[in-house]
């Protein structure tokens, strides 16, 4: 595991901390596979009952790494989420599809199915791909300064790869979030049921640890079954099939951008995205 992610066991809790604060924890592939290694370690450790996904620094995650010096989209990594072929050395939609079905959709689904409850501990920005990381967790606890957005429609893309929007936000709010690209705060996220608690920043960790310890007292197998029960019902509410369908639309948008502008993100880098949102 590289230093992109820190792992710490505290009693029955595994604290998994994204550790690229300099880049607001933008998620490159090195971080993705470091997260996967950390979650695997937590699953394999019988003493761990609950996982906390935290983030170093002032922000949870700025989303997928589309522009830091450590962007590693061209690097081959051991594939763990799917049996698709590696993306390196491929061209066009073949390349993008192979990469995203593994590192984004596949990994998020894999993490959603971790048989131990996970709590996202969110402060500051939780944008686009950052939403995916929070949404795969079972509970989300946010500090009052937390804010959320999926602004990828500015790139002509109908939402991030793990399309949980209608289930996580409700269809009405999902439309507003996608169609405007606007930020919404922790309080609004609480009102629509996307987060479980909103607390002052200095109470964030103690609130998460308190919740985690209450869950940790439950039987481990019972927790795993209850988690699977919720996930199965969410999938019966159409989430898995919906996501598969939308993943195709997402890749139509990438391909359209590449065909028309020569760039699958329509030429928008992080600075352009930030400018558009302020
Ligand atoms: Zn994509």
TrEMBL record:
Coiled coil feature spans: none
InterPro entries to which the protein is assigned, alphabetical: ClpP/crotonase-like_dom_sf (IPR029045), Enoyl-CoA_hydra/iso (IPR001753)
Family matches, as Gene3D superfamilies: 2-enoyl-CoA Hydratase, Chain A, domain 1
Recorded family membership: Belongs to the enoyl-CoA hydratase/isomerase family.
Protein name according to UniProt: Enoyl-CoA hydratase
Organism listed in the record: Paractinoplanes globisporus
């Amino acid at each position: 595991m590289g230093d992109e992610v820190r792992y710490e066991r505290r009693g029955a809790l595994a604290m998994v901390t994204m550790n690229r604060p300099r880049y607001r924890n933008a998620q490159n592939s090195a971080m993705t596979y470091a997260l996967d290694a950390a979650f695997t370690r937590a699953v394999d450790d019988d003493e761990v009952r609950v996982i906390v996904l935290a983030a170093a620094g002032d922000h949870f995650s700025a989303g997928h790494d589309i522009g830091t010096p450590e962007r590693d989209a061209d690097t081959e990594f051991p594939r763990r989420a799917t049996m698709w072929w590696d993306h390196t050395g491929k061209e066009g939609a073949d390349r993008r599809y192979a990469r995203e079905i593994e590192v984004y959709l596949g990994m998020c689904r894999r993490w959603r199915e971790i048989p131990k409850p996970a709590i996202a501990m969110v402060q500051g920005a939780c944008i686009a791909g950052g939403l995916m990381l929070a949404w795969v967790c079972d509970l989300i606890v946010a500090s009052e300064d937390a804010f959320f957005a999926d602004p990828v429609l500015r790139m002509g893309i109908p939402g991030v790869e793990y399309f949980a929007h209608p289930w996580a936000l409700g269809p009405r709010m999902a439309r507003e979030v996608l169609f405007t690209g606007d930020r919404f705060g922790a309080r609004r996220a609480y009102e629509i049921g996307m987060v479980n608690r909103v607390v002052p920043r200095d109470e964030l960790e103690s609130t998460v640890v308190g919740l985690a310890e209450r869950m940790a007292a439950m039987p481990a197998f019972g927790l795993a079954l209850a988690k699977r029960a919720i996930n199965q019902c969410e999938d019966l509410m159409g989430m898995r099939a919906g996501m598969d369908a939308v993943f195709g639309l997402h890749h139509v948008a990438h391909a359209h951008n590449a065909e028309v502008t020569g760039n699958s993100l329509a030429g928008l880098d992080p600075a352009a995205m930030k400018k558009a949102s302020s």
